[in-house]
Amino acid sequence: MLQPTDIETIKEMVEEFFRKMTVAAQIEVSTQGEQTVFIRLKTDEPQILIGENGQTLIETQQLLKTILRKKIPNPFFIDLDINDYKKGKGDYLRKMAQTVANEVVVTKQEKWLPIMPAYERRIIHIELAGRTDVIVESRGEEPTRRIVVRPSLPEQETGNQLKT
């Protein structure tokens, strides 16, 4: 469980991290539950920190977690978002998942989604988990793992499989 002093240390270290990167940003650090730390940045030049398809954002989050783990002994997770990029991407992925699932049901043809990182695949799996008319699977090996959505045949109605 994170202590209030841990949260303050995390905030100070995150501010120092971005200051050393010469990134001017408003930084908000908050927690949810006992182990998740949300770091929200607002900056005028978000694309530098987000990168292509959010790859720089993911790598920055991993780097921050590695740095912070050396100072904070308690276990925790980090969720870094820059100018609400992840929030917007999540909304887009949920809508896309429903649209693709509806298309698969109508056409009775499986549909392959583009290559995406694990956290994005997980959003798709969760969004479609309650649907019994489609089966959702992740196929392939990292870094080219993709989701396939296929119609559920009556004898296959075992629910969706969560394999991120």
Using the CA coordinates, give the radius of gyration.
19 Å
Low-confidence stretches: none
Global morphology: elongated
- Please trace the helix and strand order, writing H or E for each element: HEEHHEHEHEE
- Helix-and-strand structural type: alpha+beta
Q: Kindly give the count of domains.
A: 2
Q: Roughly how much helix do the residues carry, as a percent range?
A: 40-55%
Major β-sheet strand ordering: 1-2-3
CATH class (first level) name of the largest domain? Alpha Beta
Q: CATH homologous superfamily name of the largest domain? A: K homology (KH) domain
CATH topology of the largest domain: GMP Synthetase, Chain A, domain 3
- By DSSP, the count of extended strands is 6
User: Can you give the mean pLDDT?
Assistant: 90
Distance between the termini: 27 Å
Number of helices: 5
Fraction of residues in β-strands: 15-25%
